[in-house]
Amino acid sequence: MSRPIRVVLADDHPVVRAGLRLTLTAEPDIVLAGEATSGDEARRLARELQPDVLLLDLSMPGPPAAETVAYLRERWPALRVLVKPGGKTSPVYASPSAISCSSIRQRSSRIRIGGTLRPR
Question: Does the model's pTM come out above 0.85?
Answer without folding.
Answer: no
